[in-house]
């Protein structure tokens, strides 16, 4: 017998769109909602919101020359894209010289 109404399935972590990042920036500036409530409103997991807020944190100067930290959707998106470009495997051949491949090609014939 299967249980179709199980509540043990958790939401999967998702990538945020630029629109969701903009909405998150608005909610963070208002400062009224907790991370959990922000996540519910965006339809993502709380850990996604937590990571995004950390990723997009910027330090700004106020008019009285004091510093404060806030979330910027633009900074979050930029850092996200930088991290994505670095996360892929690097090209295999850039590590080895052409001589290495010639030397080993003789000992391992291609079938």
How many helical stretches? 5
**Percent of residues in helical segments?**
40-55%
Question: Beta-sheet strand percentage?
Answer: 5-15%
- Summing up helix and strand content along with how strands pair, one would put the structural category as mainly alpha
Beta-strand segment tally: 2
Q: Give the uncertain stretches in residue-range form.
A: none
CATH class of the domain at 18-87: Mainly Alpha
The largest β sheet comes out as: 2 strands, antiparallel
CATH-defined fold name of the domain at 18-87: Arc Repressor Mutant, subunit A
Mean pLDDT, nearest integer? 82
- Computed CA radius of gyration, to the nearest angstrom: 23 Å
Summarize the helix and strand pattern as letters: HHHEEHH
What does this structure look like?
The structure is a single chain. The longest helix is centred in the C-terminal third of the chain and has 15 residues, at 73-87. The radius of gyration is 23 Å and the shape is elongated. The chain has a domain at 18-87: Arc Repressor Mutant, subunit A. It has helices at residues 18-30, 35-42, 46-55, 73-87, 98-107, and strands at residues 57-61, 67-71. It contains 5 helices and 2 strands. The chain is 50% helix and 9% strand. The protein starts with 17 loop residues before the first helix and ends with a helix. It is mainly α and 111 residues long. A two-stranded antiparallel sheet has the order 1-2.
